[in-house]
Specification:
By secondary structure, this protein is an alpha/beta fold. The chain is 21% helix and 27% strand. 42% of the residues are buried. One of its GO terms (cellular component) is cytosol.
């Protein structure tokens, strides 16, 4: 097999992580909204503003089982000398008491029921006892009540018209509870992005296949699919493809026709057979000359087709990135970071294409830094980047690096401060520590690493990152 790459493989210009994130987030746009049943909207991003449709609570509401009373009638009540009140009725949740609570009387009331007119307090059942009055039921109140006691006034939580959720909000169970309370049986949410995924590499086998000499199973595709689903996308796994430029280019064209975004893993570095590096370099050079084409979709497919037609002889002009908004072209093909510096991204016919490393550790970092924020942006997120916290390193990092490093870690708390314990097996090609990691710790570039106790930035992963 001929080498796919010449000297052009070394002409990649690294951009900082923040700049690469900016380019991706500026290039993608939220997908159109769709109407979904409220119970299906957990984890989705809201595409409309939602307001309280009534005051909440909509009436003065009892917070306890007990008796609705005039607080003044109980002012002198004690356990030894309780106030005696005549009981004139009962009101349960969902009912409305027809009368008015007069001085010297009480109404038996259940939690959540509307407090009758005339009453200004609810005495909890445990502070009362039944009393026998000639010809009438009575209650003994053994402690004084104050106005408003155990009563939620109308509008205490929300006033009619108050905003309860804004566009871009990721809907959790609490939001769903609010929306259901105010009658939103359906809401507008952004469509989930459909993400095609495939791996490149002649060495790859299906996950279910027995190992063979020199071969490994394609675990990256399954990992990426799980990552896509974890941030709200719909994964479309397309398997693995050998290091064949024609096959990979055709697979990319088909994937871009079917999906809203495409992620590949493998073949992105400077190796002789790294086909994705050639394709991304083609997008970098050729797109600039075709950005003004009358048919952007056709031009985008031509960029991929050029690899099929010219294969290993492909030499590509130009070094500049395509202007934002052109709809196709390279965003970056090298990032100043470890691991995963060859991580690349492009836009093809307005759809994002990410070429991630084939090394599992680097693949994971590339997804978290550049894919997850973009997929969240495509779903309308108002804050697509990871949450970060400052943490103290639990142990020293002795080795320096010319670029910032993103190291898998377990984040915990000690003496009220976040601490970051770096995990073993943290090299780009290693995967043993992937399940344990709940953070990526950024170790700044420098010749000497970082000392134990040094303050570092930690990007939160898993349940912590939202």
């Amino acid at each position: 097999m001929l080498s796919l790459q010449g000297e052009a493989r070394f002409n990649r210009r690294a951009v900082k992580v923040a700049e690469a994130q900016r380019r991706v987030l500026e290039a993608v746009q939220p997908l159109p909204p769709e109407t979904a049943a409220l119970w299906r909207c957990g984890g989705r991003y809201l595409a409309q503003s939602c307001e309280a449709t009534v005051d909440w609570p909509p009436f003065a509401r009892a917070g306890m089982d007990g008796y609705a009373v005039h607080a003044a009638d109980t002012a002198q009540a004690t356990a030894e000398q309780p106030a005696v009140l005549r009981v004139t009725g009962t009101v349960a949740a969902g009912q409305v008491y027809a009368g008015t609570v007069q001085p010297g009387t009480a109404v038996r009331i259940m939690t959540g029921a509307a407090v009758p007119a005339g009453a200004d307090a609810v005495v909890m059942l445990e502070q009362t006892a039944e009393a026998a009055e000639p010809g009438a039921q009575a209650v003994l109140v053994k402690a004084p009540a104050v106005p408003g006691q155990n009563v939620a006034p109308r509008g205490e939580e929300f006033r009619c018209g108050a905003v309860i959720a804004r566009p871009g909000t990721r809907l959790g169970p609490g939001h769903i509870a609010h929306l259901g309370t105010f009658g939103y049986a359906e809401v507008q949410v952004h469509r989930r992005p459909r993400v095609a995924i495939f791996a490149t590499g002649t060495e790859l086998l299906p996950v279910g296949a027995p190992l063979a000499p020199g071969r490994i199973r394609d675990s990256n595709s399954a990992m990426i699919a799980a990552l896509v689903e974890s941030c709200g996308g719909e994964a479309i796994p397309l398997g693995h493809i050998a290091d064949d430029p024609a096959a990979v280019s055709l697979a990319l064209e088909a994937a871009l026709d079917e999906a809203d975004a495409v992620i590949t893993t493998g073949g992105v570095s400077v190796g002789d057979y790294d086909v994705m590096a050639v394709i991304m370099r083609n997008l970098r050079g050729a797109a600039a000359t075709r950005a003004g084409a009358e048919d952007p979709e056709g031009a985008a497919h031509d960029l991929l087709g050029a690899v099929v037609r010219e294969g290993a002889q492909l030499e590509l002009p130009g070094q500049g990135a395509v202007p934002r908004g052109a709809g196709h072209g390279l965003l970056f093909d090298k990032v100043a970071m470890r691991p995963g510096s060859p991580t690349s991204a492009a836009m093809v016919n307005g759809k994002p294409l990410w070429a991630l490393s084939g090394n599992p550790g680097a693949c994971h970092v590339g997804f978290e830094l550049f894919v997850r924020p973009a997929l969240r942006r495509m779903q309308g997120s108002s804050s697509p980047l990871h949450r970060t916290v400052n943490a103290r390193l639990g142990a020293a990092v002795r080795k320096g690096s010319p670029h910032d490093r993103y190291v898998r870690a377990v984040l915990g708390e000690r003496d009220g401060l976040w601490t970051a314990e770096l995990l073993a097996f943290n090299k780009s090609s290693m995967m043993a520590s992937l399940p344990e990691a709940n953070a990526l710790v950024r170790i700044p570039a420098g010749p000497e690493g970082a000392e134990a106790g040094a303050e570092v930035t930690a990007l939160l992963l898993g349940p912590l990152h939202e």
